[in-house]
Amino acid sequence: KVEKAPFKSPWGPVRSCFKLLFSSNIGFFSLILFTASISAAFGLPFFFYMKEDLKFTEIFLGLLSSVGWSGALIGSFIYGRFLRKVSPKKLLRYAILINSINIFSTLLIQNQTTAFVLVFIGGVMGCLVMLPIMSSAAALTHQTGVEGTLFAVLMSIFNFGQIAFGFMGGRVYHVIGLMPLIMVTGFLALFALAFVEKLQLE
């Protein structure tokens, strides 16, 4: 039972949330979230590469989407069964490495067979990237008094990163092409490791 309202005005949680966002711990985690969204940089160009260069049909592309989500279910099971109690900071390091490997693996997609296998593996790895990140976000917002609002803002930073990198990736694609864009994206994803070391998260 709450004896009195925790905030005197509706602006109270907003001020508290923004104050936390500019703290070093949440700030470094925001940079990790932003960097984790970097794979959006080549998402649309790669879709058209599969459609126009590899000649994948709309039906097969739809099948690939289902295969990816099936892999994500396996990834969820692996996380829940084996990884949930591992140190969040250690999991974040693994998640960043897996994210980079997942990005580089798209370079190996050359036909329907490699696409089927790698998209499934990518679905597993993608889930093993997102769940540790979301779990760490929940841990960092715990006992702040604005847990729900702060978590929503952190996820919005991730979504904004996808929009920003999608836009920038489209620009860079026209300059350097698809394969170099994927290579650059994979290496840039590793920069998030530097921010993990700054986090106070156990």
Walk me through this protein's architecture.
With 202 residues, the chain is an all-alpha fold. It is built from nine helices and no strands. The chain has helices spanning 11-21, 24-36, 43-53, 58-83, 88-105, 112-141, 147-176, 178-189, 192-196. α5 packs antiparallel against α8 (178-189). The protein is globular and about 65 Å long. The protein starts with 10 loop residues before the first helix and ends in a 6-residue tail after the last helix. The mean pLDDT is 91.
> Averaged pLDDT, please?
91
Tally of individual helices = 9
Largest sheet: none
**End-to-end CA span:** 29 Å
Task: Fill in the keyword field for this structure.
single chain; 202 residues; mainly alpha; 9 helices; 77% helix
Quickly describe the structure:
The protein has 202 residues and is mainly alpha-helical.
